[in-house]
Structure formats: C-alpha cells, structure tokens
Design goal:
alpha/beta, 5-stranded parallel β-sheet, disordered N terminus, disordered C terminus, binds S-adenosylmethionine, methyltransferase, Alpha N-terminal protein methyltransferase 1, MeTrfase_NTM1, S-adenosyl-L-methionine
Length: 257
Amino acid sequence: MESKSGSSRTTSQIRRGEYIGGLDSDGNHCSTRLQLWAKETGEDISSKTCFDPAKKREWYDKGVAYWERVEASVNGVLGGYGHVNERDITASDRFLLDVFNGMSADFSKSKHLVALDCGAGVGRVTRDLLIRHFHEVDLVEPVPHFLDTAKTNLVTPSPGLSVFGRATNFYCKPLQVFNPEEKRYDVIWVQWCIGHLTNQDFVDFFKRAKAGLKANGFFVVKKNTAKQGFIVDKDDSSITSYKGGFQRSFFQSECMH
Ligand SMILES: C[S@@+](CC[C@H](N)C(=O)[O-])C[C@H]1O[C@@H](n2cnc3c(N)ncnc32)[C@H](O)[C@@H]1O
C-alpha cells in the first residue's frame, strides 16, 4: 500500500492503524496518528517521548481554558446536548446492573463499594448514577467552577432521588497528573473526557490508575468514537478516534488512541 507521500507502509503500521488519516476541526488533514500527536502535542509516540513540552502544555491549557468558558450546568458539560442526559444515565444504569449481576459474590451489595468519577464536570454522572450504586464516590475534575458546582449539586441532590452513597473527595486536577489512592476503587468511571489526554498520558493514566483499583475492580470508559480515523478538536484540545484505535490502547496499554 502506498502512502500519500509515496512511501510504502509496513504491515505493523497498518496493524497499528497508523495509516488511517484524520481531520482537525479547521479541516486540515493529518495522514497518521504519529503526525497528529507530534504536530498537536509535541509527542513522539514511537519513542514515547515528548520533544516539545511547550506544545503539550499549550494543548492542555487550551483544553481547560475552553471548559472554563462553559456554563457550569448539565447542558454546558454536554456541549448543548443536555437532553441526552436521561438516555445516557438509563443505558449506564443497565450496563452497571448487568456487570454487577455477572460478578462474583465478592462484589456483593454488603461490600463497601467505592467509585471514582473521572473528568467529572458538574457531577452529573455521580449524582444521577454512581451515588445510587456505590457507598462512596470521589470526583476528579480540572475546572474549578465545575467542581464547585458538583459540590453544591451533591450536597443538595435531586428531589425524589433516594441517595444511597455520598460524594467523599473532590480533586481539582487533570487526569494526566492525578494519582489515585492505592486499592481504593471498585470502579473507575471515565466518561466523555479521556479524549483530552495526549497519547502517552492516556497510556500512563491507565497504568497509574490501575493501582487505584481493588482486586476485583474495573474501569468503565465511555467515549464517542469516529466512524474511521480520528478527529482533532482544536477548540477544546481533544481527539475522537475510531474505536479500533482506542481498543488497542486499552487492552495492550502500549499503543495509541
Ligand atoms: C464533555 S465534559 C463531560 C463531563 C462528565 N464526564 C459528564 O459526562 O457529565 C468533559 C469534561 O472533561 C474535563 N476535562 C478536560 N480536560 C481534562 C483533563 N485533562 N483531565 C480530566 N478531565 C478533563 C472537562 O473539564 C469537562 O468537565
């Protein structure tokens, strides 16, 4: 197979999905993931190094600055798609119950269950879902006005909602520097935020976060996917990638997203 530049692609490049190109939100084409991460974040994903830390800082600063301008509400964190909340929570609820039903007795209701809500925004997922299934939920979120709203929302839960657990710790940090307490969590829930992490930070986050899981604990990752290749959003510094790319990253924890 010939690349755009005329060089021939290796089998391993094809297997790793590097040949699948992508677009950024300005309509620019990027022919490989290698190029994408180098151009946007100064990361060389083949050598797992960052050759331009200023670029990487800019990527993260832009991402947080974007969310700092967004209203601290469910509609705000859902990018104007607030109406999706109910369907999202219903589907997650079913999913969690299915997983719990299929788990061993170790994971029984009598146990003290603890979850971590990553990139928690205004605490939507914690308030509407996690708090009903876990005795304690911690939240980690880098944008201060979102986290402040989450604290308020969780102190005053929705009327009619029988709250089972409680929100315990509120960490105002981005995932790329967050270090979870060892063996604290039964579930680490990562929803609609992992695309903000650079490729290497994505891999490193899961490696670090694994230490935060209890023996039978697990990750839940919910993210949007592209039909093919990847899409870079230059406004909020995030990537949406084809699900194949993500699965490789997650299961081999050494590749790319
Ligand atoms: C689309 S919102 C989703 C919020 C929440 N997970 C939900 O589903 O309601 C994306 C969230 O990711 C957060 N975020 C942005 N960069 C992040 C980073 N580097 N680490 C963790 N969270 C980040 C944003 O502040 C925002 O709260």
